[in-house]
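Fold description:
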Amino acid sequence: MITIGDKAPDLLGKDQDGNEVRLSHYPGRKVALYFYPKDNTSGCTAQACSLRDHRDDLRDAGYEVIGVSVQDEASHRKFIDKHALNFPLIADTDHQLVEAFGVWQEKSLYGRKYMGTVRTTFLIDENGVVTHILGAKQIKTKIHGEQLLQTIKG
């Protein structure tokens, strides 16, 4: 499980187009790496659209946005196309990244227990070090882009 002060792995995985995504592909840039449960669900769509709408402001603050979920590349491509998302989505189908970051956890819905991704955002500096973590209880999906900007500005 990755915590504040830890170095994030350089290799993040493959995006919606099958391209390898690494932190080192963003030299001198910081990254907002956000984990979300599932493409095209109401909360995940609201969160992605908020980040889309604030991407330029986040970039001005030195951050690139990268999303991660366990759906495959085709699902991510449809999600991006449907909502005009302007950042990559990593297809973590083997659960390597969600497990490394500690966001693949037991969840419960209507008394049924299952494993799933806990909505979490990691802010990573230009040296690959995690500086902030926003957990599921802190994240407000409809205004997540604004939340990140407030967190960045302190």
Notes: The chain has one domain: 11-153. The chain has a mean pLDDT of 97. The radius of gyration is 14 Å.
